[in-house]
Write a structure and sequence with these properties.
This protein is α+β, with helices and mostly antiparallel strands. It is built from eleven helices and 29 strands.
């Protein structure tokens, strides 16, 4: 109803809709906004998701604003709506406070169970030289770009995603990354066939790079639009799940799947997110299966999102003695270093980073190691240099060349905790490799090839009195008669291939390992040491021709 106001000879009519009409139009416009924003932003309909609660507050606020604007009066409906909005906002902040680390420091600290380990070799098996991952993520990206450039027509339609998930596939350690649509128009052209393949990089061999073409294209992906967008496709089936990280993985038969983590708050109402399940999506058919923790297939490498797992490690070190200790004294507090990397142990993917005392600059007290599948975690007590000190030490060996070190990989070299880094030039091309001892980062081995760097490192370990290679139980010593010895040139280095009588194993040795290798011939008696492996071909760590004396 319009209201009239008389001021002298002037008659003013107050504008504004009838309340019922204003309510209807406001509700309609708010509903329309909900449909559009829901389709665009894909919120989880979960009351313990902070984002969803704020989304509800936003829609309530829009309705109150529109209803008041159209009716130009305070009505019972917009008054009640405003009270509900204020109540929900107040409840949100109260629940956030009761879920905070301020009130739940101990629960945040105990959210992850970390076993403290003093023996480094207990967690890390010694690694043979041919098993060292030499391709980091940045290098994998460059290698992948070259592969797509070799296929006529693909480079104009697709880019390579820069995710490059690290996975185990049989005996191989791979980084894989799918192609992705360049833009909306390119997706429109190819939406029926889908993305044709993915890049596969063997991280132990920079020459083993392949663009894998699929028989059935990837229809559902993060780079697709509308109903083919991966998250939209999953969200409209799983409306109430809080979705987190996703990864592109291969099953035991080599078939690609998307794996999406499902997380739930564990502390208070909103706090302490943790992965409780995964949703596995067939990228071609879109079929989906949700697996809770105890049902997750063994081929899935990543269940726990990296950011969530690492936040839990930070809380474990930070709240070691409660909340007040973080302000006063800071006794026994640990914090992670600025970076992290991935390692593969027994076909499982782990994330690791150094742990340092709060306030410490260049040193670490050990490493945190988390299994991204099971969330099993260890604190390995190894004092020494942090990752950035090791990178600087490696760069110092080649400072005249201006090479920059990649973020290290952690290895066990003869029971010695060791950083392995690649050294790159200004064009991001790998030029050299380096091994840096964790406990004494002045012990640095460098070389143009991994074998040369390894040999240099082993030599310097021995010079420093750390010749643990000959003592470690992971090494096997064999004495036998040479039945065949031949040579080949790899990366400019002579490599020898040796077989022994009554043995079907192949032994590989770089010429840098021993001066006696070029002089060795069939029927000579030799003594060798190597890290035991399931592979038929192993790289030697020690070589001695017992009939010669030229070491």
């Amino acid at each position: 109803m319009n209201q009239h106001f008389n001021f002298g000879n002037f008659n003013f009519k107050r504008p504004g809709m009838e309340p019922k009409k204003a309510h209807f139009i406001s509700l309609f416009l708010t509903g329309l906004l909900w449909l559009v924003t829901d389709y665009l932003f894909l919120p989880a309909y979960h009351l313990r998701d902070a984002g969803f609660v704020m989304y509800v507050c936003f829609l309530l606020g829009v309705f109150v604003f529109l209803d008041t604007l159209f009716s130009l009066r305070i009505t019972k409906v917009n008054k009640i709506s405003a009270i509900v909005l204020i109540g929900v906002v107040a409840a949100f902040f109260v629940l956030q406070f009761f879920s905070s680390e301020l009130l739940n420091a101990k629960r945040y600290r105990d959210q992850i169970n970390i076993a403290e380990v003093s023996d480094f070799s207990q967690e890390f098996d010694a690694i043979s030289i041919d098993s060292i991952p030499v391709v980091d993520k940045d290098t994998a990206i460059r290698l992948g770009e070259k592969q797509i450039g070799k296929q006529a027509g693909l480079g104009s339609q697709y880019d390579v995603s820069d995710t490059y998930t690290l996975i185990s596939s049989g005996k191989d350690l791979l980084r894989i990354s799918p192609l992705e649509h360049q833009d909306f128009y390119k997706w429109l052209q190819n939406s029926s066939e889908g993305i044709p393949g993915y890049i596969r990089v063997n991280v132990r061999d920079a020459n083993d790079v392949e663009l894998v073409m699929l028989e059935n294209g990837i229809i559902y992906s993060p780079s697709a639009y509308f109903h083919q967008n991966l998250f939209r496709h999953v969200r409209f089936t799983y409306r109430t799940e809080i979705l987190s990280d996703y990864s592109f993985e291969l099953d035991d038969a080599g078939n690609p799947f998307w794996v999406i983590s499902v997380v739930e708050p564990e502390i208070g109402w909103f706090g302490g997110l943790d992965a409780t399940a995964v949703i596995v999506v067939d990228p071609h058919t879109g079929e989906m299966v949700k697996y809770v923790e105890e049902e997750i297939p063994s081929w899935i490498d990543r269940v726990q999102p990296t950011e969530i797992a690492w936040a839990q490690i930070d809380n474990w070190g930070y709240y070691v003695n409660g909340l007040f200790n973080t302000f006063f004294g800071q006794k026994d507090m640990l914090q992670t270093t600025d970076g992290y990397n991935y390692v593969n142990i027994d076909t499982d993917t782990y994330i690791f980073s150094g742990l340092t005392s709060v306030g410490a600059d260049q040193s670490i007290s050990g490493f945190a190691l988390i299994n991204l599948r099971t969330k099993e975690a260890s604190y390995i007590k190894v004092g020494g240099a942090n990752e950035y000190s090791a990178m600087s030490s490696a760069e110092g060996q080649v400072q005249h060349l201006g090479y920059r070190a990649t973020f290290p990989i952690l290895l066990n070299v003869g029971s010695e905790a060791t950083y392995f880094v690649s050294l790159k030039d200004a064009e991001e091309l790998v030029k050299m490799y380096s091994f840096v001892n964790v406990s004494d980062y002045s012990i640095v081995g460098v070389g143009e090839t991994v074998s040369k760097a390894y040999s240099d490192y082993v030599k310097k370990l021995a010079q420093a009195g750390k010749d643990t290679l000959s003592q470690t139980s992971s090494l096997k010593e064999v004495t036998g008669t040479v039945s065949l010895i031949t040579t080949a040139i790899l990366d400019g280095t002579s490599w020898y291939y040796i077989t022994l009588e009554n043995s079907d194993q192949l032994y590989l040795a770089s010429v840098e390992l021993s001066n006696e290798l070029p002089l060795t011939k069939e029927n000579d008696m030799i003594k060798i040491r190597f890290v035991e492996s399931e592979n038929n071909a192993v790289t030697l760590e020690f070589f001695d021709n017992t009939q010669l004396d030229f070491q």
